[in-house]
Every structure is written in C-alpha cells, then in structure tokens.
Amino acid sequence: MPFAYSPARVTPPIIGGQGDFTYQYDAGKLQPPPGASIVNAHGLVTDAAGNIILAYENDGKSDFNCLIRWAPDGTGAEFLTGGGRALCDGTPHGLTVASENGTEFLYHANNDQKLTKTTLDGTIVWQRTGNFGQDPSLPYRPTWFAVPPASRYIYLCDGYGSNNVYPFDRYTGAWARVTYGGKGGMTEHGKFSTNHGCTYDPRAGMIAVSDRANHRLEYLRFDPASPAGLAYDHTVDMRPGMGGATLPCNLRAYPAQEGRAISPALDGPVAVLDAHDAVVSVVNVSVLLAAEQHKHPHDAIFLANGDMAVATWAPGRLSYWMRLHPPAAPPL
Question: Range of 65's domain?
C-alpha cells in the first residue's frame, strides 16, 4: 500500500488591528511564573529598563503574590515579593510607575480601601488603609492613581465608590483635604460615572480620567503647586471610534511613539489612538482570543519596540501582541 503523506495541521496566526497598526498574538510570551493564580489581571506598567510589571488579584489560597515582572521581551517571569501580604491582600487594582529624583516607585490602588507606594520590588514606602478623612457617608473603593511628574500631589480615582478624585501628598501619603468630581452623567463634565482609570497624559500635560460608564476620557488641568487646582478642560468621546457601548478602562500615552496612546475597553477591544486621540486601529482581543477567555481588557501598554501587552479582568489573562510592519514600497 503506497504511503500517503498527511501534512501536520498548521494553526493560522492570530492577527488584529488595521493598517500600520496591525498586531500578531504571541502565545509564548507573558506566561506567568509557576505558582501564579491570576484571578483578575489589573494594572500594567513598564519600568525605565523596559521590564513589564503586572498587578493582579491572587486566589488567596495557593498564591499570595500580586506583582509579576517580565523582561522587556515578555519572557523570564518572576514574582516581586517585597511587599508581602501587606501589599497583596485584598483586591490589587490600578498600578502606576513614577520616577522621583532618579528612583522609581510604584503607586498601587487596592479596591479594599488600601493605598500604597512601593519600590519596584514591592517594598512598602507608605500605606494608607481604610477611611483617610474623607466624608465617611460616601462609598469608597479606589481604583487608580494619576502621578504627574512635576507635582507634589498625586490624584486618586475612587472609581468603584464615590466617583470623586482625591489629591494626596506623594511623599507622605497624606490626603490634601480637597475633593473633586462626584457622580454625574454624560452632560456633566468634571463629574463621572465610574472614573475607573486615572493617568497623567504627558502629551497634554493633564490628567486623563477614564470615565467608563460615560464612554469618554475627561481631561483635567492641575496646579503642581496646589492640590486645589483641578479643573475640567476637555472631553474625548470614545463612542465614534469604538461604538456606543464602549467602556474605556484606562489610557496610556507615548510621546516617543509619535504621540500615540492605547486604551483598553472592558467590552472587549483595545484601541490605538493617534496624537490627537483619534482611533486609528482596533484589536478585538475578546473576539480573537475567545478560546482562551481573554474577555475583558482592563489595561494595555505599548512597549519600547512598538509591541503591545494587554491584561484582562475576570478571568485574568495576559497577551503579547507583536506589531507587524508593512513591507516597504518598491522603489520607483
């Protein structure tokens, strides 16, 4: 009987996005270290060396960590254990990295009323738990810190609680006794409905608040010398580029990458924005990686080489996306 050759099945690559901002999923990267139990993957940052750092919620049974670091290429996962359970218990959520006098720090917002500043390995510099002096009648479940580089003050979004923004002293962790924002609908600028993400946008020199249930980014001016200087400036409506039900979770901006920004949406896609915050490409992570249950993009970052990393909530998943550069046009 003659031999019949049957070629091995080749899995087609998973590719998303459009035009110059098309990306291919690399399943071999951003693998967690042995022993990690990522219930929800929440905040992603890169340090000055390009290492990728994730804040996540553990299972509280076999895993009591909450920080993982990868090399810039998405390999070599390791736990960062300096904070121990004092940092990791509860629901670690937003993560922000900032350089202060040549030293890098992480700012953590934990939904279970815990605010922490740490070194890059998680060692605690200061921590504030429970009510910090604000109106005790208001709900309080903090989500993210914005950390402007030229300001003594950092700004906490209470995204699952009061919808307020609270300024804190970055060196002591003390609340500045100023409150901004509160609950508001789509016609009320400077008020929010789930002010989930807070970030400093270096392109505008302002704080960008991801006003999730209002489908927009709200930009706030601030005064580096005074915690009372928050003021509404302008809005970026995410619905035209992302659809009327879009739920933007956060914004990360990259002046060195032609001013682009990236914004994950809890409803499934990740948007690439140009320097003017227009959507130029959409990677439908929840559709493309449905088999692996990458359901709800929660944070996303660009890497120095132009690739992207995405963290998803419930269940916690990580994905690495390699940017595909179009071939150069032939010479005329």
Answer: 34-278+293-324
